[in-house]
């Protein structure tokens, strides 16, 4: 599909000339004859390039206001300013405001076409760069064969076809944003924006600014996440961190599908699907008065819970192989194989999938190649603190060997049972024991069945 050029000029002859010239060059066009028409066209759908007359029907510099309006919506979109009353100051002001080029009427057709071609090329390159920066989330898959992951994959397929609001619960680093992006990618909003606002990273005074935007004294507008996500999905990550006062305003948006910018009395209708996530226990946050229960019920039309990595141990080898292949292929690193997974399987993974991915990336960067001893040393060094904590023997050094062995076996088996959620068959298979033998060992050590 060819690029679309929006032509904004109050002179009908100029609009006609530009329209014919640009169409003959293989581009699509849209036209606007005045300031209000231009606003309507811009807000309806952003073009790939805009050509704007500096002076329209609202004042001497209303074209500059339109330029600012476009730049607030998408700072990368190229805008070519034209004027029949041009001077150096006007040209400089246009370029300072973010114009791609400035050209004076009567314009040379070849020169203008050259500007348009370069603007389209520039816009396409920036879009390609954006795609590359989000490649991590778009190319990484939700990997695993655990019951939890299989259930979430099924939920994603169903939820992608709906417009329901979603609340995702899971510890930090478990993959909440990845789940949200997969829903977006598979939904009818896939061509719309995906905007993330992280409640844990914002200054307390900026929540409403980032969500609702602001109309400033100089006439400019700061667009908040709700407007930026129009036609797409807004992910409010760590939503429990948002102050109660702001939660009340979010509730209004959810109920009425409209909001007001800061310093404005004008209601703005919004077409956005909201997904929220939290790493905190939402029921405790509600009980402690930190989160509005009525807002939670509005946001929690559908709930997704992703387990921590240490509760879906069967996913660890699959994730490990997946990250090795993905990271090495993306960065042209030499692939490697982890022959002994015991350290990975016995680790508690407080940072969840993100921590595992970071470990694999660290190994890939350090390039151990086929040196298995060096590779294992990297893993042991990275995971040593947690392993020492889980399997410390310092408290058994003063007791007889039999007692020390029983103490170690008890801790080891309790740990393995916990990782497999008390499933005897899975635990027995993993540690290499017959199911009946494991039952006898558990009774002998006084370990109760976790089921």
Query: Major beta sheet, specifics?
Result: 5 strands, parallel
In round numbers, the mean pLDDT is 85
Treating each run of at least 4 consecutive H or I residues as one helix, how many helices?
A: 20
> What would you give as the CATH superfamily of the largest domain?
P-loop containing nucleotide triphosphate hydrolases
Q: How much of the polypeptide forms β-strand, as a percent range?
A: 5-15%
How many distinct beta strands?
Answer: 14
CA-based gyration radius = 29 Å
Order of strands side by side in the largest beta sheet? Answer: 2-1-3-4-5
Count of all domains: 4
What percent of residues adopt helix (DSSP H or I)? 40-55%
CATH class annotation of the largest domain? Alpha Beta
CATH topology term of the largest domain: Rossmann fold
Q: Which structural category do the helix and sheet elements fall into? A: alpha/beta
Give the overall silhouette.
elongated
Low-pLDDT segments: 387-397
Instruction: Give me the CATH architecture of the largest domain, please.
Output: 3-Layer(aba) Sandwich
End-to-end separation in angstroms reads 58 Å
Structural features, described:
It is a single chain. By secondary structure, the chain is of the alpha/beta class. It is built from 20 helices and 14 strands. The protein has helices at 12-24, 35-44, 62-73, 88-96, 109-133, 135-139, 147-159, 176-186, 207-212, 225-228, 244-256, 282-287, 293-299, 315-331, 342-346, 352-366, 372-390, 401-419, 424-431, 435-445; strands at 4-8, 28-32, 49-53, 79-83, 101-104, 166-169, 194-198, 214-215, 221-222, 233-237, 258-260, 267-269, 273-278, 302-305. Strands 2-1-3-4-5 form a 5-stranded parallel β-sheet, with helices on both faces. Strand 11 (258-260) and strand 12 form a beta hairpin. Helix 7 runs parallel beside helix 8. The longest helix is centred in the first third of the chain and has 25 residues, at 109-133.
């Amino acid at each position: 599909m060819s690029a679309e050029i929006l032509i904004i000029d109050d002179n009908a002859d100029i609009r006609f000339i530009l329209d014919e010239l640009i169409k003959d060059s293989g581009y699509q066009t849209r036209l606007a004859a005045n300031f209000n028409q231009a606003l309507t066209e811009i807000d309806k759908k952003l073009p790939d390039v805009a050509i704007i007359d500096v002076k329209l029907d609202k004042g001497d510099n209303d074209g500059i206001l339109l330029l600012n309006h476009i730049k607030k919506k998408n700072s990368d979109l190229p805008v070519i300013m034209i004027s029949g009353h041009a001077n150096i100051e006007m040209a400089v002001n246009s370029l300072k405001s973010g114009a791609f080029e400035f050209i004076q009427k009567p314009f040379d057709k070849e020169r203008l076409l050259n500007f348009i071609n370069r603007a389209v090329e520039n816009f396409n390159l920036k879009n390609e760069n954006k795609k590359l920066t989000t490649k991590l989330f778009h190319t990484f898959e939700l990997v695993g064969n655990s019951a939890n992951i299989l259930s979430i994959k099924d939920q994603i397929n169903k939820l992608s076809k709906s417009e329901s609001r979603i609340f995702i619960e899971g510890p930090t680093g478990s993959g909440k944003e990845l789940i949200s992006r997969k829903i977006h990618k598979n939904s009818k909003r896939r061509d719309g924006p995906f905007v993330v606002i992280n409640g844990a990273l914002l200054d307390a005074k900026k929540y409403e600014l980032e969500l609702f935007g602001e109309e400033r004294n100089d006439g400019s507008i700061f667009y908040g996440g709700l407007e930026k996500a129009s036609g797409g999905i807004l992910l409010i990550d760590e939503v429990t961190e948002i102050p109660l006062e702001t939660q009340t305003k979010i509730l209004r948006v959810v109920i009425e599908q409209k909001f007001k910018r800061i310093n404005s009395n004008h209601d703005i209708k919004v077409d956005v699907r909201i997904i929220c996530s939290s790493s905190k226990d939402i029921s405790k946050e509600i009980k402690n008065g930190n989160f509005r229960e009525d807002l939670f019920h509005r946001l929690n039309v559908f709930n997704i819970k992703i387990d921590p990595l240490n509760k879906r141990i069967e996913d660890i080898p699959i994730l490990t192989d997946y990250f090795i292949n993905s990271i090495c292929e993306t960065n042209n690193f030499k692939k490697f194989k982890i022959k002994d997974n015991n350290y990975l399987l016995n680790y508690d993974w407080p940072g969840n999938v993100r921590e595992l991915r970071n470990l694999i990336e660290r190994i890939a960067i350090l390039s151990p190649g086929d040196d298995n001893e060096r590779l294992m040393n990297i893993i042991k060094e990275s995971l040593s603190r947690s392993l020492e904590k889980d399997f410390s023997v310092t408290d058994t050094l003063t007791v007889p060997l039999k007692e020390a062995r029983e103490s170690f076996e008890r801790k080891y088996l309790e740990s393995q049972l916990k990782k497999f959620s008390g499933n005897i068959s899975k635990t027995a298979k993993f540690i290499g024991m017959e199911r009946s033998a494991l039952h006898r060992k558990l009774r002998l050590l006084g370990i109760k069945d976790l089921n």
